[in-house]
Task: structure prediction
Amino acid sequence: MRLFATFRDIQHDLQKGTLSCIDLVQHHLTNIKDKAHLNAFLSVYEDEALARAAEVDHKIKQGNAGKLAGLVVALKDVLSHAQHPLQASSKILDGFIAQYNATAVQRLLDEDAIIIGRNNCDEFAMGSSNENSAFGPVLNDIDNTRVPGGSSGGSAVAVQADMCRISLGSDTGGSVRQPAAFCGIVGLKPTYSRISRYGLAAYASSFDCIGIFGTCVEDVALVLEVIAGPDENDSTVSHTPVPAYTSTVSSPEKKYRIAYLSESQLAGGLQPEIKNALTDTINKLRSTGHEVEAVELPLIDFFLPTYYILATAEASSNLSRYDGVRYGYRSTNGTDLHSMYKKTRSEGFSKEVQRRILLGTFVLSSSYYDAYYSRAQKVRRIIRNKTKEIFARYDFILMPASPTTAFKIGEHLADPIEMYLADLFSVHANVAGVPGISIPCGTDDQGLPIGLQLIADDFEEEKLLTAARMVMNLN
Ligand code: GLN
Result:
């Protein structure tokens, strides 16, 4: 099948009748089979996707197909898809079948998208390399000895290896933008509350965001337009109107004011080729008439501690529901109710998830609550205010999506702190609650993709998507 630059081009051929949804599903199914070793999928809905493709083909002929007719989508294993397995890549949810559709999933289906399968990820979305899955690591398609990033690694690889056109992931602390960078694709984390979290397995509720992977900004804009907006099942969703992102994403270029991280703040641990890609992009932006200035991001040293204190605190509370009674796995080694709870949780959760629950329980314990949890909440507020001060002067902040390109499988496994440090640039947008997008900007000396990130103020996705497309076209 020929390569399509955008989903709009696919739709054009579907309308003409030179392409069918069945062709599209078969094309992706072939790639899924050929690249099964990447371990990107936990389930593939072959028959179901083909049957649905036939239905959508019929609707296209009748002229009553939805906006996403022919869009083949994969879902990270944290999204509820009625009557399909949902496990958050954890043993503790063994055998669990989702009872309802997440709002985002329902909205995709309502517009005739075709769901092809469920993607591997880090257990409960905790991780930066997809090595924490109960189903084994996902491999990067560009170099199979390297990680795809995490936690939405399977979803990123599914798009990278053309196993679907779009995938949905979740971004609590960078889990869409960092794997997008490692895999050379586009990854959007919208403003917190832009997309309903109904049906998204909770990790850290005040950070969790559904995010979108695609090969181009136009496709991501289209999906956001469909899934964003108010939802009666999630009272935290914003009622800010959802713009028609697709009608502005290719609009004539405006001149922007862009801030970038000053030299001193970029220094430690940044891979030289990423720094060069950033400098190159800055020069191109300047030469095309944009104002680009260095800023100091206040409190950068507090991004990671703030994130890891608050995210683990929320995780320890959210994950208390997995007790062996209500969902999935139950240990048979318990001798009474209490030992059944304990054994279920010790056997069902991996070491990393247990580490997060322990950390979170510690920072919430009465003797340490003020020293850690409430202090981190205050710091979070200051980080948000300071970030918004930057947006009073600039349209965007430009920075790397990650300090390195895709690292080797096993490279950071021995030291969790080293793994957490890799999230430096990605957690900022989550701590501040603002939208961010990672776009591919060249490769390093070994041919591994480099991702740069643009961050904007609350609900400025329209501007963010337009600028992201412009920056992608500079390269
Ligand atoms: N790497 C981060 C963590 O482990 C991000 C996870 C995420 O965004 N889901 O918490």
User: Anything to note?
Assistant: Residues 125-128, 151, 170-175, 203, 311, 423 surround glutamine (CB under 6 Å).
